């Protein structure tokens, strides 16, 4: 989960495309939450890994919502980078 490379993307989406994107992110997040439950039962990777992935996807989903609401891309990017650093630091200490 130590991915320091970032990709900046700028999209212009129709309402349907926006709905598709947010629905896909929600579905992905929910799938990762299932992995959290399974890992708590001893299956797959550690629960901490999956919990961080859930939080990262949730942060991405929130960023998409914020950008769609007109927030500054620079502010949203800064917040995502801060969140990413927080996860990296937690994964190193756990």
Commentary on this structure:
It is built from three helices and no strands. By secondary structure, the protein is an all-alpha fold. It is flat.
Comma- or semicolon-separated keywords:
mainly alpha; 94 residues; 3 helices; flat
Looking at the structure, what is the overall shape? Answer: flat
**CA distance, first residue to last residue:** 13 Å
> With helices defined by DSSP (H or I, 4 residues minimum), what is the helix count?
3
Instruction: Note the quaternary state here.
Output: single chain
Helix content: over 70%
Mean pLDDT: 87
Structural class: mainly alpha
Strand/helix succession: HHH
Largest β-sheet summary: none
Strand fraction equals under 5%
Q: Whole-number radius of gyration?
A: 15 Å
How many β-strands, per DSSP?
0
> pLDDT below 50 for ≥5 consecutive residues: which ranges?
none
In short:
Helix content is 73%, strand content 0%. The chain is mainly alpha-helical. Helix 1 (15-40) packs antiparallel against helix 2 (47-68) and helix 2 packs antiparallel against helix 3.
What's the SSE blueprint?
Layout: H1 15-40, H2 47-68, H3 73-93
């Amino acid at each position: 989960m130590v991915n320091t490379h970032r990709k900046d993307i700028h999209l212009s989406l129709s309402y349907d495309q926006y709905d598709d994107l947010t629905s896909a992110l929600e579905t992905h997040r929910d799938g990762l939450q299932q992995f959290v439950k399974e890992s708590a039962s001893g299956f797959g990777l550690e629960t901490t890994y999956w919990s961080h992935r859930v939080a990262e996807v949730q942060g991405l989903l929130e960023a998409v919502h914020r950008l769609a609401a007109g927030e500054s891309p620079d502010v949203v990017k800064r917040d995502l980078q801060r969140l990413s650093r927080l996860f990296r630091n937690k994964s190193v200490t756990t």
